[in-house]
Write a structure and sequence with these properties.
alpha/beta; six-stranded mixed sheet; four-stranded antiparallel sheet; 7 helices; 38% helix
Length: 260
Amino acid sequence: MAETPVLEVQDLHVSVEGKPILKGVNLVIRRGEIHGLMGPNGSGKSTLSNTLMGHPKYEVTHGRILFEGEDVTALRADQRAKKGMFLAFQYPTAIPGVTVANFLRQAVKSVRGEEVQPRDFRKVLKETMKSLDMDESFATRYVNDGFSGGEKKRHEILQLALLKPKLAILDETDSGLDIDALRIVSEGINRLAGPELGILLITHYVRILNYVQPHFVHLFYQGQVVKSGGKEVAQMLEEKGYEGVISEFAGRAATSAATA
């Protein structure tokens, strides 16, 4: 019997304030797989990530989102998180006055639905930060307050490590990172990748896929997955750019239509 995918998106159509954004997305992710989703600005990548996690602003007008075979399309974001879904934001919010340690302990408590003893949590947090090569002083800082772009994204990876989800949706985790920060964040993702975790890595640039090796790469354009394959899809985009690849697809479609 084939393994049930951790995520299956079936013909997903989504509108925002009455405007159609996603126009029939189909996607399957299994445990242990890393999927790169690439597309130009405005193609609907962030709409997809927010919809998968249950943001109420995004209205599903058709289609379904299945998590481990269960239809979660109507579930709230917190309900999806408790089932094992995780979203790393493109633009993490600062929370002055709340320390990283307290924020993370509450996040773990909310997802697990049980109290986490401070002493036990401090031990786990310390060990996790060490595994990610993070200084312990990071835990005493206020959440994303005065953080650099790289620090914000490392905090997202730290959350991922502590929450241990079954599906991680990483929305442009490489956005705004310099070369050194990109390498550090990518190393964190690689350390957490494994047979129990499915990863959807959404990006605008090829460069992060040189550090985090995907099993599959999808080209996203105008609210749809228009091409899927291996690393060759990313290499094609690197060589020809989005406009070149999309123009090529459009030309092939026009030729097929004319000869049909």
